[in-house]
Amino acid sequence: MKRVYVLLVVLMLLSLRASAQDVPLFRSYEPLKLRVTGSIKSIKKNSNDSTLITGKFDYRADSASWITVPVQARVRGNFRLRNCYFPPLKVKFKKKDVTATLFEGNKALKLVMPCRTAKDKNELILKEYLCYQFYQILSPYYFRTRLATMDLTEISRKSPKQFTLLTFFVEDNAMVAKRAQGKVIDTKGIPPATFDEKQSIRNDFFQYMIGNADWSAVMQHNSNTLFVQGKYIPLSYDFDMSGFVNADYAQQNPPTLGTGDPRERVYRGFCKSKPAMEEIRREFLAKESEVLSVVERHQSAFSRYELNDMRNYLGQFFSILKSDGQFQQAIVEGCRTK
């Protein structure tokens, strides 16, 4: 009887994991086609962390038909909301509204939009999307994403404005936790030493790889915390301030972090055991070609200059890992003690 009970529990857990993974939206990497009509000004003015507004968007199901998806949406974030033309959004769905659609199984998603109307707006979004793809290779805990091309008709007092935007959906942290059979922890100030050592190092190396200083696992700044099998796991997001993305609106790093140049790599991980850091160092080096292949798969979307810049920027990171002296100076001696 006990064996039967254990078997049922195992099957139930496997079923939960399968249902969390089997979400139609993330079965493909093919960019979606969306169309939206709305007011940017209105959603900025009338929504916030606790107030959502009702709307809808259409996605193309095939060459001849569009499917309408009702949503509730709100703005999110701080810097982009204050400084960008297009705000980042969080969209929520009612189960009945997404049944039998591509969005079935999702209760909420983040929608990452370009910041400004500049010519390179879509290129910057694609670079940030690539960062999520890198982390999917480097860590077992990551956000799944789906690219989309959005035809946006912005309603205004004058004539409507038309935009063609590259965007992407990011799965909700609760979905990541469900896949990992864990839960999301909202507490800030969790001591660094209590985070899972190897997963912390993976996150720290990744942030260093893309040249991102705009995060804190401890204070949950651009980072969520998962609790999985008795361990705290950092789960990072929002990489537009990284040196890899190289956005013209990126903030300067604080004076305490080198020159302030957002492209300058600064290792912000807390000090960990040398054996663990060496293990993750070897792990990253083993995945170098796989990381670089992410860029190559999207090379048609970039100019030769941008392609070379991305290759060189990532190459500099892997050169540091390959050099005992550079690794020791930049990472082992550069780690934080407080």
Brief digest:
The chain has 338 residues and is of the alpha+beta class.
Mean pLDDT: 91
Order of helices and strands: HEHEEHEHEHEEHEHEEHHHH
Give the biggest beta sheet: 7 strands, mixed, barrel
Distance between the termini: 52 Å
Whole-number radius of gyration?
Answer: 21 Å
Q: What is the count of helical runs? A: 11
The percentage of residues in β strands lies in 15-25%
Secondary structural class: alpha+beta
Question: pLDDT under 50 segments (min length 5)?
Answer: 4-20
Helix content: 25-40%
Number of strands: 10
**How many domain units?**
2
**What is the overall silhouette?**
globular
Characterize the structure shown:
The chain is an alpha+beta fold and 338 residues long. It is built from eleven helices and ten strands. A seven-stranded mixed barrel has the order 1-2-3-4-5-7-6. Strand 2 and strand 3 form a beta hairpin. The model is unreliable at 4-20 (pLDDT under 50).
